[in-house]
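Here comes an entry:

___
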Amino acid sequence: MVIAAPPDPAGLVQDLRAFLDETSAEVPGSVSSRNGRRIVNATTERLQRYFRALERAMPRRSIAALSAQWAQVIPSDREASDGEVAQIEQQARAIISPSVDALSDRLETLLSENGAVAYTESARQVQDAAVKEFGLPAPEVPQFSCPARFVEVIPGIRDLPVPEEIRQFARAWSTGRVVGLDETSLTELSETIARALRQKNRGVADVARALRAKFDSFSDDRAALIANTEMNSMMSTAALEKGLSLGSTQKTWITVGDDRVSQQICEPNEADGRIDIRGAFGSGHTNTPGHPRCRCSIVTLGATRASVAEGVSPAGQQSFLRLVGTTAVIGLIVEPILRPPPGEQEVEPEA
């Protein structure tokens, strides 16, 4: 969202939320917008299919053999020791790792494709809102005139052509995300096996039930968490970069205003009001999401009619494409320096 003349800082957030509530308007470029929710839902469904494929790819015989081996080694009348649990985790990780690695490309493609659409749709929303706000005529050329087409159209969103610059950024972004997601899968699955074998009277069936419950959790909860968090990251990056290209000079953090908003990160960031568009909020974040499952948005401010007109011109569109992904790189450098050490900001993920 681009705002021309920011109101008084003290009333900025309240005025914005009052306007949105009164008009039932959406924050353009937000994961909470109608198309933002559609993107998240479509991504969740693809992630659910991925996790079910990962479940089918599990080396069941090797896991069963490992379980049977430890069931014989550890007396059934006592729990496994911490040292034994650590050994089980290490061995389980080695067994599971090839299956996770084999599906990494599928996960990367999923995030890259949907992330590219999320970025493109967010940038379109922000530009359309700015053009409407200043009463400018629609751009003479489509916002994104690249002939390449997205391979899977998300239901409810028009068939957006996605420029190669955005595709390249989405591919690089998804590669980094997959490393962390795969690591989490390996850790959680190996720990699940170890916990099942820690208990007394352990057996192969206990491990099988524990893994099934874990994969159910992956499909029911983790898929939605990943989809919301990662699509928020792409949409907020696009909103910030499109705002920059349209001449915005400041930004503000907007929460959804309900009782599930993080009081440790998101509410204080919103209270910061407007800050320099390249600056960091009090939490150290330069953009949303502030934490897993964050529903917040970034609103950019300070654009003028002239700057928006320049930004939507053919030359302005090309300048925007050269900007794609740059704020994300800056965030990766700046945020780890500015954020408090782990443990100083405990956050309950928003449901």
